[in-house]
Amino acid sequence: MKLQDIRKTYQRAALDEDSASADPLALFQQWLGQALEAEIPEATAMTLATVGSDLRPSTRVVLLKDCSAAGLVWYTNRHSRKGRELAANPFAALQFHWVELERVVRIEGQVQAVDDAQSDAYYASRPLDSRIGAWASPQSEVIDSRTHLVTQAAKYAARFALTPPRPPHWGGYVLQPHQWEFWQGRPSRLHDRLQYVRLADGQWQRQRLAP
């Protein structure tokens, strides 16, 4: 089959101003809840896009770990490429794609590190092997082989046993949205797109975008 011949008809649902909340966070939490209820694989996975000081964009997939009025939170190695890029340019975009529900959510905003107490609490909740892995992996750096990772993991497991502390270079980020977009697939490629833009007074302006 040729790629140009692949087609899909979208017809599961609609998104209109009458049924959509005026608060984008409330709509997102509703959609996320429906994705979890539908048992969509990796429903909390989101693509994170950043731009470094060289103005070159990059993306990777991270996992949503908290969502509230304070913003959307994920955790990672702050010495990684994304960490370095966020240090140079603290603005980013997130995207969720729930294929089975024919939905996409895009969020743009400013990013800052979460405080140490919150990072400590989440780190302590992780499985032991994940906590050791945060020490063992020099994320985004070139390594000789997988053996290097295994050796480092064994070293830190022996050093810390059952109580590894949070690495100083590992912690959370929170994106504080200034723009949301909700996309619902519709027939004939006449998709529904609702955009929410934060105004100077903190209120949200809702707009419909052409597909």
Structure described in brief:
The protein is of the alpha+beta class and 211 residues long.
Description of the molecule:
The chain is of the alpha+beta class and 211 residues long. The protein has one domain (9-123, 169-208): Roll (Pnp Oxidase, Chain A). The protein is 27% helix and 33% strand. The chain contains five helices and nine strands; from the N terminus they run H-E-E-E-E-H-E-E-H-H-H-E-E-E. The protein has helices at 24-37, 81-88, 116-125, 128-136, 146-160; strands at 45-51, 57-63, 66-68, 71-77, 91-98, 103-113, 170-184, 192-198, 204-208. Strands 1, 2, 3, 4, 5, 6, 7, 8 and 9 form a nine-stranded antiparallel β-sheet that branches. Strand 5 and strand 6 form a beta hairpin. Helix 4 (128-136) crosses helix 5 (146-160). The protein is globular. The two termini are 26 Å apart. The relative contact order is 0.19.
CATH architecture descriptor name: Roll
Identify the CATH homologous superfamily.
Electron Transport, Fmn-binding Protein, Chain A
What is the arithmetic mean of pLDDT? 96
The main pleated sheet reads as: 9 strands, antiparallel
- The total of beta strands comes to 9
Work out the strand percent: 25-35%
What is the N-to-C order of secondary-structure elements (H for helix, E for strand)? HEEEEHEEHHHEEE
pLDDT < 50 stretches: none
